[in-house]
Amino acid sequence: MMGMSIASDNGTRGRVGHHEPTFAELYSPKLLTVFREGYSLGDLRADALAGLTVAIVALPLSMAIAIASGVSPGRGLYTAVIGGFLISLLGGSRFQIGGPAGAFIVLVAATVDRQGVDGLLLATMMSGVLLVIAGYLRLGTYIKFIPYPVTVGFTAGIAVIIFASQLKDLFGITLAAKEPGELIPKLTALAHGAPTANLSAVALAALSIVIIVGLKRLRPTWPGILIAVVVAAVFTFALQLPVETIGTKFGGIPRELPAPALPVMSLAKIQAVFPDAIAFALLGAIESLLSAVVADGMTGRRHRSNCELVAQGFANVGSALFGGICVTGTIARTATNVRAGARGPVSGMLHSVFLLVFMLIAAPLASYIPLAALAAVLVVVAWNMAERHEFATLIRSSWGDATVLLATFGLTIFRDLTEGILVGFALGAVLFINRMAQMTGVEDGTPLVAKDRADFEDGARVPYNPKLSADKDVLVYRITGAFFFGAASTVGTVLDSIADRRKAFVVDFAAVPFLDSTAANAMSRVAAKARRQGIRLFITGASPTVRRALLTHGVRPPSARFRETIERAVADIKGKETPQEDISADGLAAS
């Protein structure tokens, strides 16, 4: 049978099972692919315009995310400039835009609180190393297996935490003590500090939200976030409003990149931040690959997941060397890049260059940006992150999906983001196993049996020969579905209940696409019992892979014999045909 044709990861087309991607095909940056295809001056102009558009969006976002993460706004810009450039230079997606992401706010803020900025930089660098290793181990494919309810749950949980973290600056509240990190204590402290709310800050935040939301509806192509921040800064400067600004809290933003330097390292520090590094790497891998998938859906292209992980790893190492925070692919900025007409990774590289230019030119003006306006930006980001429609749909879909969703959501908010992802993934895996096990069954004397695939390649089902099941001396079982550990106990119990008065029984594997070691071991026990009781066991319709697994676990003559079809096995039992040699895993005779 001809192999199915699919698009390979490097944009070519191949045959399933006939082409193993080379190292170069898996890890060559998309930038090289774009240049090989031909890159014209028109492509450069399109990428420059797209890069400028994304930079305008990324400028206030990078500062806002950094401030919300507990570090200075300059570190957010370092992340976007260095990390964003490396992701586009080395990445496996044509359109991915890298930078600081809202999803990291919770983790970064907690790490800064526990380990300080030095610990954050070390954890960021270590997460980069872990991502590079994961990419070269080709783990990118498995990261895509995160269940959808888990991604919706932790994204919605992050949105709630981001929203709560911005309430202080949104209302200009002054707290006597440090703002708590946990949600309930945070809300309690903010409620006690509500009388200190600053009306000017509230007005600027409300104005910023109105501008962002209004321009998105009326002028969707305009940079609403940047316009809102600029308008708020102008009002603050012109009216000398008594609100906290980037200048009053941080002294402004730097006008140049710092010199690269290694973070402070020691064995004790490495051990202390290692859990944070794992959390950064896990979330960074999920977030970046989700962003790349979104870009694929918008453009019809395919990204190289493992190459993307390697790029994300080097980008995090580079960001940490220059004092930046965690960097990952960002869905909103990547989508903006695509909509702006980007042709390839050059747009992402130029976006970083434009941000650096903005730092050099506009640094003095950034001092007047009120924190209330940046908080408003993140409130809008959190609202868009929440995926409310998807959340409600999953709640209504099934009890299993709702359980996974709510468990992930609740643990993300009240416990820990990493714990929420891991528990949600575990629950999703158990739910999948249960559903797959329910689809696996054993049929005894059913009206339909799959014919031999060698004779009927279309897999057509034809009426079962009633003489096969009516024979008192022969029992015919047919297993349907994946035969794996989730179903092995149930199926093994059915097969184990062999009637002592039967001379032989046949187990048909024609409808079994997969068999694992647990199921093969269960079949081994059935074969051993049949042999002890003097019952002849025939296995029919097994694919080469299934046969190989059975033979490996001792399901072989004289305990069991392999035949191509049920009819042929029954004929051998009746002695109506000359006994044939058993079929081995390779299709050769088994002794």
TrEMBL record:
<feature type="transmembrane region" description="Helical">
    <location>
        <begin position="197"/>
        <end position="215"/>
    </location>
</feature>
<dbReference type="Pfam" id="PF01740">
    <property type="entry name" value="STAS"/>
</dbReference>
<dbReference type="InterPro" id="IPR036513">
    <property type="entry name" value="STAS_dom_sf"/>
</dbReference>
<keyword id="KW-0812">Transmembrane</keyword>
<dbReference type="InterPro" id="IPR001902">
    <property type="entry name" value="SLC26A/SulP_fam"/>
</dbReference>
<dbReference type="InterPro" id="IPR002645">
    <property type="entry name" value="STAS_dom"/>
</dbReference>
<feature type="transmembrane region" description="Helical">
    <location>
        <begin position="404"/>
        <end position="433"/>
    </location>
</feature>
<feature type="transmembrane region" description="Helical">
    <location>
        <begin position="277"/>
        <end position="297"/>
    </location>
</feature>
<feature type="transmembrane region" description="Helical">
    <location>
        <begin position="475"/>
        <end position="495"/>
    </location>
</feature>
<feature type="domain" description="STAS">
    <location>
        <begin position="464"/>
        <end position="573"/>
    </location>
</feature>
<dbReference type="Pfam" id="PF00916">
    <property type="entry name" value="Sulfate_transp"/>
</dbReference>
<feature type="transmembrane region" description="Helical">
    <location>
        <begin position="146"/>
        <end position="165"/>
    </location>
</feature>
<feature type="transmembrane region" description="Helical">
    <location>
        <begin position="222"/>
        <end position="241"/>
    </location>
</feature>
<dbReference type="GO" id="GO:0016020">
    <property type="term" value="C:membrane"/>
</dbReference>
<feature type="transmembrane region" description="Helical">
    <location>
        <begin position="48"/>
        <end position="68"/>
    </location>
</feature>
<protein>
    <submittedName>
        <fullName>Putative sulfate transporter with a STAS domain</fullName>
    </submittedName>
</protein>
<feature type="transmembrane region" description="Helical">
    <location>
        <begin position="309"/>
        <end position="332"/>
    </location>
</feature>
<feature type="transmembrane region" description="Helical">
    <location>
        <begin position="120"/>
        <end position="139"/>
    </location>
</feature>
<dbReference type="InterPro" id="IPR011547">
    <property type="entry name" value="SLC26A/SulP_dom"/>
</dbReference>
<feature type="transmembrane region" description="Helical">
    <location>
        <begin position="352"/>
        <end position="383"/>
    </location>
</feature>
<feature type="transmembrane region" description="Helical">
    <location>
        <begin position="80"/>
        <end position="108"/>
    </location>
</feature>
<dbReference type="GO" id="GO:0055085">
    <property type="term" value="P:transmembrane transport"/>
</dbReference>
<keyword id="KW-1133">Transmembrane helix</keyword>
<keyword id="KW-0472">Membrane</keyword>
